[in-house]
Each structure stands twice: as C-alpha cells, then as structure tokens.
Write a structure and sequence with these properties.
The structure is a homodimer of 219-residue chains. Chain A is α/β, with parallel strands linked by helices and 219 residues long. Chain A is built from 9 helices and 13 strands. Chains A and B meet through helix 1, helix 6, strand 8, strand 10 and strand 13 of A and helix 1, helix 6, strand 8, strand 10 and strand 13 of B. The complex binds adenosine-5'-triphosphate (ATP) (2 copies).
Chain lengths: 219, 219
C-alpha cells in the first residue's frame, strides 16, 4: 500500500483520487476550493483546504512523507509551477504534475517533476485513433516498428475461414495471439484450425505497416 | 479520408483537431472564442467562429455533411447538451460528445450522442494504474478475466534465466508473447531458450489474477 497526496481536485485529480481510494490506497486530497474538498471527503482518506503555493500549509500536511505527490492544477499554470517547485524543495519523493502545454511541461520537468501527464492531449490522440481506425480497438506500441493490436473482423471475405486458410503469417505477416468470439469465449494462442467469424476480435502482433495494411483491407 | 467537425477547441478538442489534421483528415474547427479559432487556423482545414447552440450557424456550416461531429465543450454542461441535440436533429451521422460527469453522459446518450468520452476520468484511471503498478507499462483487457500486459522485469531472481528455466507457463500460468530487451531488440514469440535480463519488458497474456500475481512477485 502506498500513500498519495493530490493537490487540485478537478476532473483529473478528482478521478485519480477516487480510483486510488477504491483500490484501498491512502489518499490525501487538497484543494483551495472548500466545496470541492467537502465533496471528496467521502472518498479520500483525508482532505485539506489549502493553497498549493502555501509553504506552511504543505509543511503542516507533511507533504514530503507521501510516496507520490500529484499536482493536478490545470488552467492556472503559474500556480501549477510554483506548487511543483515548493513540493520539490520540501523533499517530496516522487512528483507527478499535469501540464497544460509542452512549454509548461518543459518547466515542470526542469524544476523537479518526475512524471508529467497531458490528460487532454493524450485523450485527443486516443480518440483520433478510434475515429480514424474504428476496427483497431486497442493497441500497444512495442517498439517503433512493432505493435500489438486488437482488430475487429468486418470483412466478409475472412468470415468463416480458419486461421490457416487465411494464412495470417504469410499473407499478412501477422501473428495471431488470441481470437475473441464474444466477451466470454476467447481462444488464447489459437490452433491453425480455429475458425474466424464476423465481429470476432483478433489480437495480433506484427510490424506497424502490416497491422495498418491488414486493417485497411479488413475495414 | 474522413471529414470531421469539432465544436469546442479546448485542450481536448484542440489536440484532437491537431492529431486528425496531422493525419491528413479534413477538419473544421469551431469555437465561440475568436482568439482560439485564430490559433487553430494554422492546423485545421477550415475554422469558424460560432456558438454551437446557434442553429443557423450550424446549418450554414453544413454540419450534417460531416462523417463525424465532435462536441468538445467542457465546463458548460448546458451548452454541451443543447449543442448535441441541435447537431443530432440537423442530421449529423456520427456524434462524439465529451461528458463532464456520469449524469451528463446519460443525458448525452439519450439525446443522440453515438460515442461519449470522459477524457479526464479515463486519464485519472490510467495514471492511478501507472502509479500503483509501475512495472505494468501497458495492458489490454481482453475479457473480464484475461488480459495482455507489458511487464518490466525488476526481480533479480528472474534475471539471466531462460524462459524455460523460469517456466512461465506452469509456474505463473502466463504465455510470453514477446521479450523486448531494448527499444531496438525485440523477440516476438520467443523460443524457450530466450534469456531474460533485468529491465527487459515481457508482453504476457493470461488471467488477470495471474498477471497481478506475477507483477506482485516481480516488483
Ligand atoms: N493554488 C492552488 N492550490 C490548490 N488547488 C488549486 C490551486 N489552483 C487551482 N486549484 C484547484 O485545482 C483544480 C483543477 O484546476 P482547474 O479547474 O483550473 O483545471 P482543469 O485543468 O480544468 O482541471 P480538470 O481538467 O482536471 O478538471 C481546481 O479544483 C482548483 O480549485
Ligand atoms: N456554446 C459554445 N459554442 C462553441 N464553443 C464553445 C461553447 N461553449 C464553450 N465552447 C468552447 O469549448 C471549449 C472547451 O470548453 P471548456 O474550456 O469549458 O472546457 P474544458 O473541459 O476545460 O476543455 P478542455 O479540458 O478540453 O480544455 C472552449 O474553448 C470554449 O470556448
């Protein structure tokens, strides 16, 4: 079990708090907005009304004792930066800070943030992918050339054929790691005679361009 | 190539616009804030200064002609809801809307949004995972019981042993799909004699509890 202090209980900081608390972690929620702090009293281990830029307040909260301090202050870039350097100099062990822009991120990195997150930019990227390639449900970049992707089968030409008949390895240069026929019917490391149906979701591994080529042909 | 109209060029809508534009998609960026619209003129195919709740403006922009309309209005829940129903009734084919809360999401779904996104809540969840299980770099939930995970090896007990010596399949009930030794050295569907080193990243597939158990022992 780890201890977390979150400064800034907006939508990102607040949902981070709820997720950690529901996983039984020790979480202190801090915000200068009294109403917000009250809302989170039900979820957090502890809460405090304080300004992240108030050194005495942070010292009194023993901010250096936490395993992780997350600075989730958004629009007020100045407050985000000043809070981060204050928390760093008070001796925090691991600092996560939310950045509004790449320049903001540069400052945060240079003044001591260990991990920087861009929630909205990251989600903009993910949603763009979902909209441009709706049949690629999830993917992991393994290296700059290889990825692992979950692809939904929508091409009738592939339906009701076995993996060996489709010949993924030679025709598409893809390795099929799993075939999900439905939410409760999945074949891990399937046999060559496994039959593929429309709407099945295949987990495949291969070069990015081969994954994209298969998606383009399949969609 | 698809066409996109984004109403609301905040951090989420704005980064979605930039991502789509950099992938050579046709994007119209709309916001009621003149300065923001000017900033995005350099990235979007077209831009317009308009209020999403202005029916004449949306009709003039031919909002129904786009493949996807994304409503990325945040704090103003009323404007988000009224814009969504307007866009729906003007005949938009596919509507993506950003929701602030689960109640807001319910309303959006009921009035016609096809896809609802919660960027901050989703990122709060992801960052919580990253902080609680720092050696699980990425994961995909395949079913409610099975997942695919990228796990970094930090346990010296496993270092410099072959996959067969560690015996993942019997000891950990995991299937090792790839071993990444470094960003340019990856073994896909590795042989049993593949040797694992500290800091290698293994892509494994197995039951959630087995992935978690391995992570707990490995960390
Ligand atoms: N100096 C400060 N000390 C403590 N809390 C602060 C400070 N400045 C801002 N906050 C709090 O941080 C929270 C998040 O900030 P804000 O709403 O500006 O950003 P946001 O990026 O829109 O947040 P989100 O996207 O996570 O909802 C707010 O609840 C705000 O009250
Ligand atoms: N009725 C409207 N018509 C057009 N644009 C609007 C309307 N209402 C708000 N917007 C724009 O939507 C954008 C995003 O809204 P806002 O800043 O409230 O939300 P946010 O959730 O903080 O955004 P983000 O987290 O994406 O930065 C703003 O640029 C704002 O000008």
């Amino acid at each position: 079990k780890q201890t977390f202090a979150i400064i800034g209980l907006g939508r990102f900081g607040g949902s981070l708090l709820k997720k950690l608390a529901s996983a039984h972690q020790d979480v202190l929620g801090i915000d200068c907005d009294e109403e917000l702090v009250e809302d989170y009293m039900a979820f957090a281990t502890h809460t405090a009304i304080a300004d992240g830029q108030d050194e005495d307040a942070l010292r009194a909260l023993d901010i250096a004792s936490f395993d992780h301090v997350i600075i989730a202050i958004g629009h007020n870039i100045q407050a985000s930066i000043l809070t981060t350097i204050l928390v760093k100099d008070l001796g925090a062990k691991h600092i996560v800070a939310k950045a509004e822009t790449t320049t903001h991120a540069k400052v945060l990195a240079r003044i001591g943030a260990d991990m920087i997150v861009h929630p909205e930019a990251e989600m903009g990227r993910r949603v763009a992918h979902q909209l441009m390639t709706p049949n690629i449900l999830n993917y992991i970049d393994l290296t700059k050339d290889y990825s692992l992707a979950e692809i939904r089968i929508t091409n009738t030409a592939l339906a009701n054929k076995s993996l060996s008949a489709i010949d993924f390895r030679n025709k598409y240069r893809l390795n099929v790691i799993a075939v999900r026929h439905s939410s409760d019917n999945i074949k891990i490391t399937p046999q060559p005679d496994e039959v593929i149906h429309l709407d099945d979701v295949l987990s495949v591994i291969g070069k990015n361009r081969d994954v994209d080529a298969f998606d383009a042909e399949n969609s």
